[in-house]
Amino acid sequence: MSRFAIKGLKTFSSCRHGSSAVEFAMLLPLFLTIVFGIVVFGSYLAVIHGVQQLAAEAARSSVAGMTETERSSLASTYVTNNAATYPLIDPTKLTTAAATSPSNVNVFVVTVNYDASAMFIYTLPFVPKPATLIARSASIPYGGF
Fold it and tell me: Terminus-to-terminus CA distance in the chain, angstroms?
């Protein structure tokens, strides 16, 4: 090997101009996967929170009823009227059940179910799939306590 070839080889092996681009190309897919995962699972958790809020507010609104039928009607009406205020929740996929607790006759329980099977998270490959049915409930004691 000539002296120029050896000097050129040493210069090439010590050159670091492209190393940042290579490191960036290697880490970008991992970084984007993490960010995308945060956004997708964050939206799922936002839906869970919204369903819980609907159940809690429906239980609070049911206090105004005098009978169990009236309380159940108030809770269902609240969920129907306010579900559209949550942008990630499709109001057509909500169901509401409201009744006196079987374990305590002094407590009224409102349960809101949401079918989340149409969410984007279920179309992704290689992603752990959470439950498609989100069920949240809230209970409120009858007045006079």
Answer: 96
Q: What is the C-alpha to C-alpha distance for residues 71 and 73, in angstroms, rounded to an integer?
A: 5
Handedness of CA 42, 43, 44, 49 (dihedral sign): positive
Q: How far apart are CA 40 and CA 122, in angstroms?
A: 10
Each residue's pLDDT tens digit in the chain (145 positions)?
Answer: 667 666 666 665 666 677 788 888 999 999 988 988 888 889 999 999 999 999 999 999 998 888 889 999 999 999 999 999 999 999 999 999 999 999 998 899 999 999 999 998 888 887 788 899 999 999 999 875 5
Cα 114 to chain centroid distance, Å, stands at 12
Is 9 within a domain? no
In a domain, 125, yes or no: yes
* Residue 100 in domain: yes
Rounded (10°) angle between helices 19-61 and 68-82:
150
Domain holding 107, by residue range, is 18-141
DSSP class per residue in 60-105: HHGGG-SSHHHHHHHHHHHHHHHGGGSTT--GGGEEEEEEE-SS-T
